[in-house]
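tool_log.txt
---
The assistant was asked to compare two proteins side by side. It first ran the structure predictor on the initial sequence, then on the second. Raw inputs and outputs are pasted verbatim so the downstream comparison step can read them without reformatting.
(1)
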Amino acid sequence: MGSIIEERIESKRSSSFAVAKKVVGYGISFCFAFLFIAYLAICFSIRSSVKEMSAEATKQYPGDRIEALITYANSENHSLRQRNRAVWALGQIGDERALATLEKSYTGGPCDHDNSLCQRELQKAIKLCKGGLNATVWLPR
């Protein structure tokens, strides 16, 4: 009689453990799927913003989009905010041709967003153009 009760208790424990294991497994799978979908959404948003900035630059400065973005970033005819977007786009594209211009504008000092290009954005763009880790590099821009 005692062994029958023990077997039932053991059976319920293993059944409960199996259910809990399934729930945890599905939960982890859901989290990974959600993170992957969020990552893809962010990547495509970045891609879209780079294309938009490139189109704006090439509309005003015909030719190659890298050269157009470089000219746009250096132009006093645009607000610092717009020029910083061009710097960001150059970094996201990661083309080495932008390095000379980016490094020329980079002082390494604190940011003064009212009077000059964002030093932090320049630093990030330089790093990406030198081959730094870019999580969205696999996407064509």
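(2)
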Amino acid sequence: MVEVAVYKLLGIVIILIGIIAIYQLANPKPVERGKKWGADSPSQTLQETLPKNMEQTKEEAGVTATVIFIPEKSISSNVFSISLDTHDVNFDAFRFQTGVTLEKNGEILPTTSVSESGSGHHRKAEIFFPKRDLPYSLIISDLAGVNRRTFPFSL
């Protein structure tokens, strides 16, 4: 008796799953223009809000500085990866926390968080700033005799 009831219940569950699957196939959710399929959460950014120049490199005074905007981490902050490479300068004295800022309409924004790695001639950091809309510039100050390196980001 119990086995028959279990099989009936299992049959009902399978039928309900089939009905839901048919409904979902018949009524797919439309994709909004500019959004990835299924992009419902704020963590999935519209393409129109990303900067055109997400990766920039500048070479000055024997130093190669590369700045990369990281959209997948830029939900409540603006997040960048910065690499400094050289064969001539020791970067151990450079402080990403104070030497890198974000500039928007004349307002200078300090970092809110920094995660550093490397030493000597090769340093990297992941840097977080308060969230701001484009356009803005990331500024690296007082590095290897160069007062200001500017990395502009725009739509």
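---
observation on (2): The chain has a mean pLDDT of 83. The CA atoms of residues 134 and 154 lie 5 Å apart.
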